[in-house]
Amino acid sequence: MSKTWNQTRVAEKLGIVYPLIQGPLGGFPSQRLTAAVSNFGGLGSFGAHGLEPSVIDERIAEIRSLTSKPFAMNLWGSMEDQGAHTSDDAAFQRALSHLSPHIKKVGGTTPSYSPYKAIRFEDQARALFDADVPVFSFIYGIPPKEILDEARRKGVITIGTATTPDEASALEQAGIDLVVASGFEAGGHRGSFLRSSEDSLTGTISLVPQTVDQISIPVIAAGGIADGRGIAAAFALGAEGVQMGTVFLGCEESGAHPVHREAILSGKAKHTSLTRGFTGRLARGIHNELLETLNRPNVEILPYPLQRGLMRSLALPAQEAGDAELLALWAGQSANLTQCTSVEKLLTELVESVEDKIDR
Ligand SMILES: Cc1cc2nc3c(=O)[nH]c(=O)nc-3n(C[C@H](O)[C@H](O)[C@H](O)COP(=O)(O)O)c2cc1C
């Protein structure tokens, strides 16, 4: 009997019905979103990179209380950039000087410099293993061998993220189970690890087939996929699964602030840009006054994660003031195609649309 479109190695390995993955949305946590996608028969993910191990533990328990299906917990292989420990008050004040007018405009309090406290990736990974998570996904590199050995011993499925075919090969050689090939259309960070992010800006339609040709483990396509056309195209390129992020930020279950959701759903999201200004690392968001400020050549950007900390002083008051021009509106290039209300409605429509396209 011939297989249907959804019966791929990705679905089989993960034990899910549809190889449709809600990508981790670090910084926008929503246990409800993760569980809703898994309950539908896809794979929900939870971005846990900014969380202390004890909090990760609580989030896993909350997700488990909402679903008995497989879900992924996601971490970042690299948690700080060079210079994060030596960056000082003077650099903080220089970076702040460009944001101060914006912070004042939305009624925020001027932040003061405080040294950075690291969370260790190894401690976070331990929390995932102790909680017996079914799937461990990650971005920004390859975890140390001991961690991957433990994942294999415990039967935890691993998903790595590649922004070039060579990164995908490195992940395959390390024994990772599945690879997300993430084109530069994607929302969120550009998680490159062999070359700089700026030097790894391959688009999805180019990256996916080259990655499929270069490795033998299954490839999951990500970046700019927001409807049935995109999913069918990714499968035609050889992907065996699809990971979407921005489209889920627009859903009612998402952890995004209503101002952010509204910007994604409002039809104003046609113009997105890359910036280091949101966190210190290259990421994509809707082009607005804030992104324009951050991308000016004279604006100092602190190393990750200091810039991320600094930006919080603006994010909270901008949200309260409902100011979409001064909020970091994380989104990918297909934000404008996004039409989510609830996860169930979105996924039902996506599945129907893919089936229709594949039949035709
Ligand atoms: C706000 C936001 C946060 C994200 N955080 C993470 C993260 O912590 N870890 C990760 O592996 N991917 C992260 N991603 C990437 C998504 O999981 C997904 O691969 C990507 O959004 C796919 O591209 P799309 O936005 O065009 O759908 C993030 C994306 C967005 C939009």
UniProtKB/TrEMBL annotation:
SUPFAM superfamilies for the chain: Inosine monophosphate dehydrogenase (IMPDH)
Reaction it catalyzes: 3 propionate 3-nitronate + 3 O2 + H2O = 3 3-oxopropanoate + 2 nitrate + nitrite + H2O2 + 3 H(+)
A molecular function GO annotation: nitronate monooxygenase activity
Instruction: One Pfam family, please name it.
Output: NMO
Q: Name one GO biological process term.
A: response to toxic substance
- Cofactors that this protein relies on: FMN
InterPro entries documented for this protein = Aldolase_TIM, NMO
Q: Does the keyword Glycoprotein apply?
A: no
The domain of life is: Bacteria
UniProt entry keywords in alphabetical sequence: Detoxification, Flavoprotein, FMN, Monooxygenase, Oxidoreductase
Gene3D superfamilies, per database record = Aldolase class I
Q: Which family does it belong to?
A: Belongs to the nitronate monooxygenase family. NMO class I subfamily.
What is the official name of this protein in its record?
Propionate 3-nitronate monooxygenase
Taxonomic source organism: Terriglobus roseus
